[in-house]
Amino acid sequence: MKANVAIEKFEITELNVDVVVVGAGPAGLMAARTLTGAGLEVAVVEARDRVGGRTWSKTVDGAFLEVGGQWISPNHKVLKELLPELGLKEFPLYGEGDGVYLDEDGTRHVYSGENFPISEQSQQEMNRLIGVLDELSSEIDPDAPWTHPQAHELDTISFQSWLETKSDDALARDLLTRLVPVAWLTKPAHDFSALQAMQFAASAGVFSAFLADNIVESRVVGGMQSVSEKLAKQLPDPVLLGAPAQALSWEDDSVVVEADGTDGSKNYRIRARRAIVAVPPNLYDRISYSPPLPAIKQQLMQHLSMGLVIKAHVVYDRPFWRDAGLSGAGTGLGELVKDVLDNSNYQDPKGTLVGFIGDEAVEPLLRLPAEERREKILNSIANYLGPEALEPEVYYESDWASEEWTRGAYGTSFDIGGLSRFGVDLRTPIGPIHWASSDLAGPSFQHVDGALRVGKSVAEEIIAELDATD
């Protein structure tokens, strides 16, 4: 039911629904789809002028770029099953040819096979450590890592310090931290705990799953954002865009969400029986709650933070690296760009690379003028693939850290000690308020697949609740 009420000089649209969803990313939209499929009335409000959350396909100077989350892994079963339902297709990443490894002094090595061209001793030590990490991560419940018998011990030591107790081989340690938890959590290995690293590994099964050649297996034809766009189109009512939720008042069995656009043109007051806050946890406090959220939730929010990464997109007239028999994939511990990948689009003759700069290397770059930062990043990519990399047709940096409704990338993780203290409260409803995002996922933690899993699960919990009260 909808009604328009004039208050002062602004018009407020009042809605009465069963569930209000705050956030139109994959989690919120999957929740809305599941709820409407059960016959419930749903309103979805979104602060941005688009759906998709941290997935975003954008055309820059004529080049199609996926500036947010984009890859599909073998274990992303929910996403894989959903794509054909939405009329979407996958296409494989280009993986033919040799890789490039830059060692700590910058020496360039072209190699084939699974192993980096490092000393036999360090490779053997890496293999041994992978076995240790696989064994431990296989014991971790990704939905409840705090239940592990050593949870407190693992959560009160940084992953870097914990690895130092397991091995004296600095190269083996650095490669393992760089390739898995640092690359994905986008924080230095001294900033998150061993338990947080193990939860991340367990979210894919075991630690070594993230070392497999096909861990980034495929992409969506048309971009990952199209998943959210298709989900939104299936809803009976359009998503209310440009309407950030400002206030949420709640009682035991009802909520009122006020979503006010900054220009006063999109103001909503939505009454519902349940609410789903489907935004990253670092944004929970952008909403004013009445009554205030309980102390535990307030504390939890202060122990979670976003990572930081620059994702640089560079587009060329052709994928020139393939002419040299290279796959476009490179890794370098001593490089500014730690990882580079062929990210060329489906049936596109142009060649696209993405380069990633993460953790402590990002802040000095962000302090530089844009042109100087661009020059440094291109020079680093050229160290992998040669001087042709210096002359792209299009250059673009994904700037999620300054994006108001994200403020970092790829997702949130706990500080040291936070996961074992507050993890159990992440998804616990507070009265009629439920929570959903990829940051709360067990399997596929911080991935679109995880967002879809959580969105569906939360919706099913609400359906069961409302069935029980009707």
TrEMBL record:
<dbReference type="InterPro" id="IPR036188">
    <property type="entry name" value="FAD/NAD-bd_sf"/>
</dbReference>
<protein>
    <submittedName>
        <fullName>Putrescine oxidase</fullName>
        <ecNumber>1.4.3.10</ecNumber>
    </submittedName>
</protein>
<dbReference type="GO" id="GO:0050232">
    <property type="term" value="F:putrescine oxidase activity"/>
</dbReference>
<dbReference type="InterPro" id="IPR002937">
    <property type="entry name" value="Amino_oxidase"/>
</dbReference>
<keyword id="KW-0560">Oxidoreductase</keyword>
<dbReference type="InterPro" id="IPR001613">
    <property type="entry name" value="Flavin_amine_oxidase"/>
</dbReference>
<comment type="similarity">
    <text>Belongs to the flavin monoamine oxidase family.</text>
</comment>
<dbReference type="InterPro" id="IPR050703">
    <property type="entry name" value="Flavin_MAO"/>
</dbReference>
<dbReference type="Pfam" id="PF01593">
    <property type="entry name" value="Amino_oxidase"/>
</dbReference>
<feature type="domain" description="Amine oxidase">
    <location>
        <begin position="27"/>
        <end position="463"/>
    </location>
</feature>
